[in-house]
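Why do we care about 3D structure at all? Because function follows from shape, and shape follows, mostly, from sequence. That is the central idea of this module. The next example makes it concrete: a single protein chain, its amino acid sequence, and then its structure expressed as tokens.
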Amino acid sequence: MSCAEAEADGETGAAARREARLRDLLFVLRCSAAATVSILLAQAVGLPHPVWAAMSGVIVSQERLGDTQQATIGRFLGTLLGVAIAVLVGLVARWAEAGTTAEVAIAVALAAVAARRWPLLKVCMWTCPIVFLTATPGLPIWEVGLLRGAEVLLGGVVGILLHVAAEWVIRLLLRRENR
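And the structure:
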């Protein structure tokens, strides 16, 4: 290997290390921002349990953008399925005067059937208990499901938007460095 080749190889390695450090820093910042911004937005629009927005924003935040996109799709579709199952089971269970434990057992069993078939949607299994265990007396179960779904979707949108923004920043900085 010539000196010029070794120098070029060293520059490439240094550039790769700088990019890795930048990605690490932006991962930390965007995860923290996803939780914080999700809480603030959920509070601003009056959602009663902003914790679910914060958790969703962090859960969808993966290392690579493609993984974040997959996690977001799974989170969104799984949440919608879990809410639908919980609301349907809740309506029937309330009519049959079954308790919360029975509602959770039945809803999670149905969600688990779906999760076995479509693993990307496994969040539906824990969405069901969340809907039942955060229910407010006097609030219809469909409204509880709608609120939980809104909290989760809000956090997921924040998480993916911050990841897209971080990727844009990385590309911009790398372009400037390569000039």
